[in-house]
Specification:
single chain, mainly alpha, transmembrane helix, transmembrane, membrane
Length: 56
């Protein structure tokens, strides 16, 4: 039980850190290169400017 709980806590910490990094990058590079198209963040208005290469 202890090992499973530590794994869950580690996963939550990693997910939280990744979310914070993605939010920071999206706020920091708002006027720069739109790399958020891969995450689907630029669907609101930036998709007209930058088209992600993964589109089928």
């Amino acid at each position: 039980m202890k090992q499973a709980q530590s794994i869950i806590e580690f996963t939550l910490i990693v997910a939280f850190v990744l979310i914070c990094i993605s939010v920071f990058l999206s706020n920091f590079k708002m006027r720069g290169i739109e790399q958020q198209a891969t995450f689907g963040v630029s669907e609101q208005g930036s998709s007209t400017v930058v088209v992600p290469p993964m589109t089928p």
